[in-house]
């Protein structure tokens, strides 16, 4: 193996330097931790130099595999080289890989982020290309020119199945470094061949580099599951805190698939279930103090004081070290949400003005570079352990986490951790001063905690500092006091959080419980409520005092006399916040319910924040690694702890105008956050002042809505919308009066009741047993929902206020012309959501007019966004919604009402346009007549939808695909829609169900239709293609017609969809797209050469510009197809356990489902659209996500790269992810080499198998 780059000589002289790696693909059993979780059929790419060592692992693997609970000493430890392979190369070099295949089937390497000749270098069998994978026992050479810096996924696309080789570990990444970079081992400082960690050196600086692979669902061949230990966190189901008693078995073979599922990082996991097993074993062995060390499970999941360090990565460095995370999604299905405590980065590393974030959604086969602002320890140079993890709590719980360990003293290999393990040496970075050596008086982290605790035990509680309130916290030890920062203020001890003299803003929060009514009013007779009588929330201490105390506050909630939204507070950039939290959660045993497992006592509660600066040792609100447990107590933690820590002060510094900042409990987040225990800080500009939106003279302490005024006299309205899912809820018929106290607990259905969808007063959509990880509960926005199932009637009227009244969800009000800003966040729990607003839009990045217009934003838990609405948005009722079918069905929608006349209770802001039309005058119009019809849709030779509904356009060929129209920028588009349906189409009992739906066959399907656009400008009152709020009915009855008028001002792709039945119509085919071309562009039919303004493909020509070959792809999911149209022969779902995956998938009414016995992309004429072009042609792919499911999608094209920002100044990628209902994107690249190039989803589990792939054929004669 030669990892040094070489300069070509002879005939190749002058070509880029070549860096060569010899790689072997071989079967290696993979141990994911020391508890016996393993994949006996693991497969890895490894350097040839390491192959013999790993072959020895396979030959010595124990058979039968030992039971960890009986023979822990026989369980193999994870091998340090059984990891995803990382290859490094410099930008501008050619990467050459000689791949030897020792597996029993063909293997290839398909690399993202590079352009290549698919006929020789694709690593797969695609279309008409020769198969470029490697047969068993053979070797093949691949070579790629690496033109762009970043991290790029590679995997085995010779096996594209969801359960194929990549799920067993056959993945890796190429990191393309700067042209002058070198890299060394962080421990020894020696040159490094490969590795997940490296020190990277440039002429003027060095940085720590950490590669993180997020993966999911490999096989787990452990013969045992963690044994149960009662009902408080034994958690054998790996869910969000359930217990093994509900699973009923200790054997993985007897458990349902989610119970033995694994979610590794870098092929390692550290699940809570096994740590709880260790906890109970240590209790039984007398190692732990049953009072001091009592835990329910989750609160100490990440503790090294209790369990030692995890099997997952602990990335080490010195405070202030520059650091870069290379994040790779090596999994097959889920879009994960990667979050780091303490640290932040720019969303696009190539754009120094892109948003600052600390969590990001990442989809399969994506790669991202996270350049940590301020390096390790962030800008405040903190020390301590800082966790990073997938924020989806089920994943977090199942072991998808690791840590940064940030030292403040030199580590030369002689030190030891509190559990006695050696501290491996760590070479300081060049260009940086070495940290001081440890001394007895200042030993550094974590040694200065040594006088407070002994291993194993619960994390020690933090010390008080001189300015803490009297009685708060214990006195510090001498070592702790010696490690204090100068003059520590309340909420900081070892790290100075803000600059001296920064203004301080103080809040006193209370964590409490109470009944939260999400839907309905308990005071109204003969109605229904959806409520969580175990709701949890943060409230201001002052509002509880004003209510007469906590019990009075709770009574008011239970009676419906007080409504509550998630706590939202505000602060200015440059301010310090002193956040005092008091724990008022009920002490004692917490009974089990249909959703929740039993808690023997109430664990600690914390206040963990995102984005702002803090001291991680005392203000993280967690118990991470060797840190303290920085949390508040109840009486269950003992009299002394309750007296000193029932309240605790956290200190945050707002160093940037972040916009939305999420905070939440981190000790029992899996249990509490879905009940509502989260809130938000809005970081405002330095000169901002905020008031009540109803009275601009009333200052605002808390509230989801505000008017914010600036020193220059400008002002804006802002509103916070916080979505939550997995919310435990029951349905109850109201009698009009509610007794003192909460709704009776009997309505939660116990452990086994309520699997009736809540229609008889039971729990709504409960899990199979308390604490199970299955999709469950309900969704809400700001603790409210407006479920469509409760509205009834014709689906076309579900959103109409003149039929059902205004929804109970937040009604946002403003005037046209005002600056309106929506702060949207996801506070819980596990699902992805797609936020849209009809009839308006916003720039992709707030305050950046050079970025693309968007009217859809994808969210996963902890994702936040500031959406500054287009000020040219006109009056009327605009539907805001989390737009996947399940979100809408469960009530995650509401109204943005823009008034065109002054309202007495809504003072107008500067810039308001009252009585004015913000739309341009109607000039040139492009007119279409579109018909909605019933038609059997043939998705492939054998798969059809007999219940299909389609749009057709007059005067155009009757294409097999969906409606695709075109216009020029600056044109008005007039579409006359004619409804040719005979009446309401029939329901089908075999349709994929929505959540909490018992019988799809009993579903009402509307006979009305509509055509609703995204992104365009129009009068939402008349041309929205929907019946929303107080707007006129924009749907079309059978036999009727209606004309819509839309203004297309900027080029791009627009999703067109039906809004008359959001559950059934789009899924049956009423979906399409409009492409807005440049103002001087003309589209032509690729086959005839004639001008054509409809159809999925076009050659677009402009004066003095190259022609562009254009393909529009409309992605569909949730379909119910039938074999040969036989209604008794539905196509079986490949994965039926999750509603997110129910139904079939297609592009443009066509699906290229793989044959189970020949799963390859080798069909040269797949049913999906085939784009033909020549080498050198410009290509534009317009994506419109017309899908209805919540599962996020991603999209990639083999052998191509493009600018992710669509501006020409961003990071280059080969995959875009987090695509959800309503997403639209345009991908532009230049075809280079002849051959067939696959476009496809990266969701191998089960997107590719279900047909989400097609071909771009590049040839001299297209």
Automatic annotation (TrEMBL):
GO terms for molecular function: copper ion binding; oxidoreductase activity. Residues 87-180, 309-405 form the Plastocyanin-like domain. InterPro entries: Cu-oxidase-like_N, Cu-oxidase_C, Cu-oxidase_fam, Cu_oxidase_Cu_BS, Cupredoxin. It comes from the Bacteria. PROSITE patterns: MULTICOPPER_OXIDASE2 (PS00080). Residues 229-240, 745-759 have a biased composition (Basic and acidic residues). Residues 221-258, 454-473, 741-777 are annotated as: Disordered. Keywords: Metal-binding, Oxidoreductase. This is Uncharacterized protein.
């Amino acid at each position: 193996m030669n990892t040094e780059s070489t300069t070509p000589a002879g005939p190749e002289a002058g070509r880029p330097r070549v860096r060569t790696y010899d790689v072997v693909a071989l079967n290696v059993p993979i141990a994911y931790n020391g508890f016996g979780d393993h994949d006996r059929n693991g497969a890895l790419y490894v350097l040839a130099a390491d192959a013999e060592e790993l072959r020895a692992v396979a030959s010595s693997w124990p058979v039968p595999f030992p039971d960890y609970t009986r023979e822990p000493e026989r369980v193999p430890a994870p091998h340090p080289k059984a990891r995803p392979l990382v290859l490094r190369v410099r930008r501008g070099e050619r990467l050459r890989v000689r791949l030897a295949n020792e597996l029993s089937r063909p293997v290839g390497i398909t690399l993202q982020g590079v352009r290549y000749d698919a006929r020789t270098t694709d690593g797969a069998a695609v279309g008409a290309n020769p198969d470029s994978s490697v047969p068993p026992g053979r070797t093949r050479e691949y070579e790629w020119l690496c033109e762009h810096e970043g991290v790029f996924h590679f995997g085995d696309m010779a096996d594209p199945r969801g359960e194929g080789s990549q799920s067993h570990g056959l993945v890796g990444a190429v990191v393309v470094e700067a042209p002058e970079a070198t890299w060394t081992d962080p421990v020894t400082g020696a040159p490094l061949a490969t590795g997940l960690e490296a020190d990277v050196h440039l002429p003027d600086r060095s940085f720590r580099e950490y590669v993180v692979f997020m993966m999911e669902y490999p096989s787990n061949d452990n013969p045992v599951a963690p044994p149960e230990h009662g009902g408080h966190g034994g958690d054998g189901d790996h869910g969000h805190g359930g217990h093994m008693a509900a699973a009923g078995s200790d054997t993985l073979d007897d458990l349902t698939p989610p119970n033995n599922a694994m979610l590794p990082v870098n092929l390692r996991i550290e699940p809570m279930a096994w740590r709880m097993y260790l906890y109970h074993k240590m209790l039984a062995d007398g190692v732990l103090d049953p009072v001091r060390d009592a835990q329910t499970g989750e609160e100490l999941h990440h503790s090294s004081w209790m369990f030692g360090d995890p099997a997952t990565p602990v990335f080490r460095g010195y405070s202030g070290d520059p650091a870069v995370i290379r994040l790779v999604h090596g999994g097959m299905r889920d879009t994960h949400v990667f979050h780091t405590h303490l640290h932040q980065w720019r969303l696009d590393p190539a754009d120094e003005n892109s948003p600052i974030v600390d969590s990001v959604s990442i989809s399969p086969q994506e790669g991202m570079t996270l350049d940590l602002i301020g390096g390790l320890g962030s800008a405040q140079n903190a020390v301590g352990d800082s966790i990073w993890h997938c924020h989806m709590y089920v994943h977090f719980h199942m072991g998808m986490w690791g840590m940064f360990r940030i030292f403040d003293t030199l580590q030369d290999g002689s030190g030891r951790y509190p559990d006695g393990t050696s501290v491996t040496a760590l070479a300081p970075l060049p260009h940086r001063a070495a940290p001081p050596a440890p001394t007895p008086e200042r030993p550094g982290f974590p040694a200065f905690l040594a006088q407070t605790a002994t291993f194993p035990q619960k994390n020690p509680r933090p010390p008080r500092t001189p300015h803490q309130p009297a009685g708060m916290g214990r006195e510090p030890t001498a070592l702790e006091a010696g490690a204090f920062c100068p003059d520590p203020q309340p909420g900081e001890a070892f790290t100075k959080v803000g600059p001296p003299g920064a203004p301080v803003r103080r809040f006193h929060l209370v964590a409490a419980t109470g009944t939260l009514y999400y839907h309905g009013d308990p005071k109204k007779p003969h109605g229904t409520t959806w409520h969580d009588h175990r709701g949890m929330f943060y409230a201001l201490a002052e509002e509880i005092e004003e209510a007469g105390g906590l019990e009075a506050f709770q009574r008011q909630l239970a009676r419906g006399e007080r409504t509550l939204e998630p706590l939202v507070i505000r602060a200015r950039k440059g301010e310090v916040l002193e956040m005092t939290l008091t724990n008022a959660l009920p002490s004692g045993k917490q009974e089990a319910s249909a959703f929740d497992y039993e808690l023997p006592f109430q664990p600690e509660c914390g206040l963990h924040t995102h984005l702002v600066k803090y001291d991680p040792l005392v203000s993280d609100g967690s118990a991470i690694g060797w840190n303290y447990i920085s949390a508040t107590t109840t009486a269950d933690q003992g009299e002394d702890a309750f007296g000193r820590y029932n309240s605790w002060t956290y200190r945050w510094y707002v160093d940037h105008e972040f916009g939305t900042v999420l905070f939440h409990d981190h000790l029992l987040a899996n249990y509490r956050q879905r009940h509502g225990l989260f809130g938000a800080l809005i970081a405002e500009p330095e000169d901002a002042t905020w008031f009540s939106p109803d009275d601009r003279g009333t200052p605002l302490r808390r509230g989801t809505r505000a008017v914010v005024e600036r020193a220059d006299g400008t002002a804006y309205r802002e509103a916070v919308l916080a979505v939550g899912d997995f919310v435990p809820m029951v349905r109850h018929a109201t009698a009009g009066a509610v007794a003192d106290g909460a709704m009776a607990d009997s309505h939660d259905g116990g452990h086994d009741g309520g699997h009736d969808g809540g229609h008889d007063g039971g729990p709504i959509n409960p899990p199979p047993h308390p604490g199970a990880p299955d999709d469950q509960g309900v969704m809400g926005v700001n603790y409210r929902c407006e479920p469509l199932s409760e509205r009834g009637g014709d689906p076309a009227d579900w959103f109409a206020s003149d039929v059902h009244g205004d929804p109970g969800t937040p009604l946002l009000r403003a005037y046209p012309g005002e600056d309106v800003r929506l702060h949207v966040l996801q506070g819980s729990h596990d699902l992805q959501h797609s936020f849209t607003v009809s009839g308006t839009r916003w720039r992709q990045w707030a305050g950046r007019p050079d970025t693309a217009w968007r009217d859809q934003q994808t969210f996963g838990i902890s994702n936040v966004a500031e959406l500054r609405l287009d000020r040219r948005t006109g009056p009327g009722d605009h539907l805001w919604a989390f737009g996947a079918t399940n979100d809408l069905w469960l009530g995650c929608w509401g109204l943005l009402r823009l008034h065109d006349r002054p309202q007495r209770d809504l003072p107008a802001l500067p810039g308001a346009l009252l009585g004015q039309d913000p739309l341009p005058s109607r000039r040139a119009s492009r007119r279409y007549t579109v018909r909605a019809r019933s038609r059997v849709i043939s998705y492939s030779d054998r798969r059809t939808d007999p219940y299909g509904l389609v749009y057709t356009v007059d005067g155009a060929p009757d294409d097999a695909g969906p409606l695709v129209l075109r216009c020029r920028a600056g044109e008005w588009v007039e579409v006359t829609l004619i409804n040719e349906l005979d009446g309401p189409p029939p329901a089908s009992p075999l349709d994929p169900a929505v959540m909490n739906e018992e019988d799809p066959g009993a579903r009402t399907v509307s006979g009305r239709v509509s055509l609703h656009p995204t992104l365009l400008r129009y009068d939402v009152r008349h041309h929205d293609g929907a019946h929303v709020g107080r707007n006129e009915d924009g749907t079309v009855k059978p036999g009727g017609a209606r004309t819509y008028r839309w203004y297309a001002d900027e080029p791009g792709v627009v999703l067109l969809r039906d809004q008359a039945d959001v559950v059934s119509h789009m899924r049956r085919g009423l979906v399409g797209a409009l492409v807005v071309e440049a103002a001087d562009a003309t589209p032509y039919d690729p086959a005839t050469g004639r001008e054509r303004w409809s159809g999925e493909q076009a050659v677009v020509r402009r004066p003095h510009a190259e022609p562009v070959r254009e393909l529009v792809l409309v992605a569909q999911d949730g379909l119910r197809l039938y074999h040969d149209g036989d209604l008794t022969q539905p196509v079986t779902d490949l994965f039926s356990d999750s509603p997110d995956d129910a139904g079939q998938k297609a592009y443009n009414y066509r699906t290229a489902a793989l044959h189970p016995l020949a799963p390859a992309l080798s069909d040269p004429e797949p049913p999906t659209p085939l784009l033909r072009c020549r080498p050198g042609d410009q290509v534009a792919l317009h994506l419109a996500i017309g899908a209805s499911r919540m599962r996020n999608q991603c999209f990639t094209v083999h052998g191509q790269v493009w600018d992710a920002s669509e501006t020409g100044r961003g990071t280059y990628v080969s995959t875009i992810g987090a695509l959800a209902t309503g997403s639209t994107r345009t991908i532009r690249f230049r075809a280079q080499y002849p051959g067939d190039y696959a476009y496809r989803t990266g969701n191998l589990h089960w997107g590719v198998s279900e047909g989400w792939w097609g071909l771009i054929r590049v040839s001299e004669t297209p």
